[in-house]
Amino acid sequence: MQPNSSQKLKIVTLVSVGKHPQSGRVRRADQDSRAVELGLRLSADQADGLVVLHAGDPNEPSLRSYAGMGLTAINVLQLDPAADAVAPLGEQLHQSGADIVLTGVRAESGEGSGMLPYQLAEKLGWSIVPRVADIVSVKEGVAEVLQALPRGQRRAVKVRLPFIASIDTAAPMARQSAFGPAQRAAMTVTVVNAETDTLRQSWHEAVAKKRPKRLKVIKAKTAAERFKAATAKSQSEGGRIMKQESAGEQAQAILDLLVEEGVLR
Amino acid sequence: MSSHDLLDIVRRDPRAEWIARNRLHPLHGTLVDDDAAEVRGPSGLLRKYPHRVGFIGPNGIKRIDRLKGNAAASGKGRRSAAQEVQLPLHRVENPDFYIVVVADMVGGRLTGHDKDVLGQAHKLAAGIEGAGAVLTVGFGSAKEEHFDTAGVDRLLVLDDDIYEGYCPEQRLAALLQVENEYQPRHWLFPDSVNGGTDLGSRLAARLHERPAVQAWQVDHQTAVCRGAGGTMDITRETPRLLMLAEECADQIDETRHEALPVTLTPVSVISQLQDQGPVAVDPNAVALAEAEFILSAGNGIHDWDQFHAAAAVLGATEGASRVAVDDGFMPRFRQVGATGTWVTARVYLAVGISGAIQHMQGIGQCDKVIAINTDAGCDMVKRASLSAIGDSEEILGELIKRVQAFRAQPSIEGDQDAA
Ligand SMILES: Cc1cc2nc3c(=O)[nH]c(=O)nc-3n(C[C@H](O)[C@H](O)[C@H](O)COP(=O)(O)OP(=O)(O)OC[C@H]3O[C@@H](n4cnc5c(N)ncnc54)[C@H](O)[C@@H]3O)c2cc1C
């Protein structure tokens, strides 16, 4: 996290309204607040380096909990709740000329499809790096970022500025939100007009039903087969057994299998 | 008792009746008509003659076959019987439309999630008029051997060097080429962290489609998907591009498919993203449940320093059986099994673990199990794809040496393999 300070980086974090997964209460979204945290760290040595942008209702209380992380202001594009936020956000980013745009991977409220960063990238013609855990350095217009992979792995990717990064839950935890600064932060409101998301109005939304668990269906024709399926112990599936070989040969066979599976890095 | 019925005086032959009643009489067979197909009683009920069921076995004992002939193969061994089953071939000669499934193919094999999506593809194809073919696109070299039984009608494997590593822009260009050449009716992606979501989102943004994400109940008209962080169900018209949740549909298991290879005009793009390769992470910092490669120790480990050294050299996360934990050699959070952690490793190397059922439950999801054990008959060896029978200390020692030698010359991997 040592950005080159010779050039001033313009970092924009997009935030949305979060929803607690258990209580359903409105909160700052987990990934978005991590994106704010990363933005604050990247612009630590610059006054007002980080711009936090929200499209929606400026009176939304959860915005204050982002502000409580130490922001002086939050920019809000005020628009109709049924409107599509992609176009005005793209416009705003295009005009302000950001270097790095940070978002969450998927929103905790609304459609939550995770398409917004991709649509913005497509609109602006920028690169997108999904599931970022950290931005290691920014040098001469090229950023080195760490991507979070499944199974706790990381991958280093180099990307040219400007780019959009969606921040994974593997990124550093967001700092606490303080009440006083949260109340003092300014809400800079810009009223914009946006097209209504007509497609979404034809959708039917309901509280999520519990998904039925997949049953293990046993397609057996006779009682004996069903009995066997229900009671069978694991039996040899034709694995290779090396009994006579020397320890060296056995170790080599194990090594070959590990290499073939690609787990030996 | 056969030809008397024409006479009005019924003449009985007590001797014949007696022989007929006596199943052990040598002439019994001549008097009793064995192959009378069906005997109906006076009220029309089907009568079964219990003594006629079954046959006399080789040692003179009567045998009744209640398996209806299904046990016949048991003498030849289970494996040969399992291989005989030839599923019916599902053939699509001239497809009216294509449904494209872009598979994750983690480690070159179809994942369970990929197979769910393939099942969904066939479900969708069945709902649409005309004959549809499921075209599966996979990137990187494929090790999968069972594309046919997973439901792949047409197969496109792009294994050029340019598709290796993280290259979403290159892969997107290939998918756009598929779009041009095949005009698929639907695009299906597994909604997974293994790349399916990323590619699907990129393609959707490029094609200006509004995808259904985390879709879990889909037919050709409506799709139900999870929204708002999994707390809402959105019911909508089925879009052209879908990213499907796990277990969205049943996997294909009753048919075989052609898996005909198809080709694609090569494309290449200048990539903005440069893959710098994986970054070393401390394998023991990775949660046991998530680890990809586990080296697990049991009661058969005697030199614990060597075991830890082996884990470090292999870059494997350490695991343990309950005995190793109870004896104080490993911390409790390393225990694998019913009362420990259920692991999902792709490769599980079990050293000196007998394979008690409580332990096996924990490794049920592992792909490849390798066993090192002195006992060739233990359950772990039965489960393993590769078993080395011998002393753990000796084999681990050799393994450490060979891995170190392998690491020393990473550039000439091919030569190392042959050595
Ligand atoms: C309620 C309950 C819950 C349990 N939960 C768990 C659980 O979550 N996880 C778990 O692991 N167990 C669990 N157990 C214990 C389980 O039943 C077994 O006792 C345990 O898994 C056995 O561990 P092991 O295979 O390491 O030891 P052993 O059964 O003693 O096996 C040792 C193996 O090492 C081999 N060996 C010995 N010397 C060498 C050598 N020099 N080189 C190579 N191989 C050698 C032997 O051939 C043998 O196969 C549970 C038991 C109960 C009752």
Kindly describe this structure.
The complex is a heterodimer of chains A (265) and B (419). With 265 residues, chain A is an alpha/beta fold. Chain A has two domains: 2-201, HUPs (Rossmann fold, 3-Layer(aba) Sandwich), CATH 3.40.50.620; 209-265, no CATH class. Chain A contains eight helices and 13 strands. Chain A has helices at residues 30-42, 62-67, 86-96, 116-124, 179-184, 198-201, 223-231, 247-261; strands spanning 11-14, 17-19, 26-28, 50-56, 73-78, 100-104, 127-139, 142-148, 154-160, 163-167, 186-191, 204-207, 240-242. In chain A, strands 9-8-7-10-6-1-4-5-11 form a nine-stranded mixed sheet, sandwiched between helices. Chain A has a two-stranded antiparallel ribbon with strand order 2-3. The two termini of chain A are 26 Å apart. Chain B has 13 helices and 21 strands. Helix content of chain B is 28%, strand content 22%. In chain B, α5 links the parallel β7 (132-139) and β8 (154-158). Chain B has helices at 14-21, 28-31, 78-84, 112-127, 147-150, 168-182, 196-207, 304-314, 322-326, 357-362, 379-383, 392-408, 413-418; strands at residues 39-40, 46-47, 55-56, 62-63, 89-90, 97-102, 132-139, 154-158, 186-190, 212-218, 222-227, 232-237, 241-244, 256-257, 260-261, 273-279, 293-297, 317-320, 347-351, 368-373, 386-389. The chains are: A alpha/beta (265), B alpha/beta (419). The interface between A and B is large, with 84 and 89 residues. β13 of chain A pairs parallel with β21 of chain B. Flavin-adenine dinucleotide binds at residues 298-300, 321-324, 335-340, 352-354, 356, 358-359, 362, 372-375, 378, 391-392 of chain B.
